[in-house]
Amino acid sequence: MEALKECCANIVVYLHPSKAKKVEASVYRQLSSLLFKFNESLDGVVLTYEPKFSSNLAKILPGIHPYFGVRFEAKLLLFHPKPDMLLEGEVVKVGQQSIHIIVLGFSSAVIADEDIREDFKYKIKHGKEVFVSRSHKKHRIKVGTTLRFSVKNFDEEILHICGSLVPSNTGSIQWLETKAEESQAYSITEKRIGNKRAAELLEPANIVSYRKKLKSENHIKKSRRSKSRDS
């Protein structure tokens, strides 16, 4: 997924002296407070962390409040969707005016009707709401569908995404992958047929026949030119 990125960050955590005997546990507690929140310094929502401590864990900071300053390096997985990025999520609600999706189990996304391409038509099938492609009847979007969509904007405070199904490379992932496999299989078949035809043309008997055909066609062309000159 384009919106996911890994990074290494140098982090400083300030701990009360009472936590001196449980530094690592206290650091993990502080890092846990960063999860699933947008962090401006890191430019993303923290999803996972993996701290790496040095042998010298903590130093007392000078000043009135003798807090411990713990410096360490952490490997982080961040989530920060930006416009035109492609995201994937599970459809949880389908309505005539919108499609609602959950991304990575925590971020909500909505695609309004004006951002659903005209190829999709809203229908009610067997009592269930669904969007069906006019050009490909098997391409359907319903509750439970894993959907690929494009990002319009991302609200960093409430972690809400506005998406779009206008780009042609968006829609049901199952259908998109099936279409890609069929296209690849067709391309391989065409290539094999082309190679077979080329091999047949390279056979001695076919080369002689092809040369005779060219000679005959050239003879006919010369005869026509000669007649046109005489006339």
Description:
The protein is an alpha+beta fold and 231 residues long. The strands form three sheets. Strands 1, 2, 3, 4 and 5 form a five-stranded antiparallel β-sheet that branches. The protein is built from three helices and 14 strands. The N and C termini lie far apart (74 Å). The longest helix is centred in the last third of the chain and has 29 residues, at 173-201. The chain is elongated and about 110 Å long. The mean pLDDT is 83. A hairpin with a 3-residue loop joins strand 6 and strand 7. 29% of the residues lie in helices and 39% in strands. It has helices spanning 23-32, 173-201, 204-230, and strands at 4-15, 38-39, 44-52, 59-60, 68-79, 86-94, 98-103, 107-112, 120-125, 128-133, 140-141, 146-155, 160-164, 171-172. The protein has two domains: 4-79, Dna Ligase, domain 1; 86-176, Nucleic acid-binding proteins (OB fold (Dihydrolipoamide Acetyltransferase, E2P)).
CATH architecture of the largest domain: Beta Barrel
The percentage helix is: 25-40%
Strand content: 35-45%
Uncertain regions spanning at least 5 consecutive residues: none
Structure summary, number of beta strands: 14
Q: Please report the first level of CATH classification, the CATH class of the largest domain.
A: Mainly Beta
- In total, the number of domains comes to 2
Quaternary class: single chain
What's the number of helices? 3
Q: Supply the CATH superfamily name of the largest domain.
A: Nucleic acid-binding proteins
Protein structure class = alpha+beta
GO biological process, one term: DNA-templated transcription initiation
InterPro entries: RNA_pol_Rpb7-like_N_sf, Rpb7-like
Main location: nucleus
Protein name: DNA-directed RNA polymerase subunit
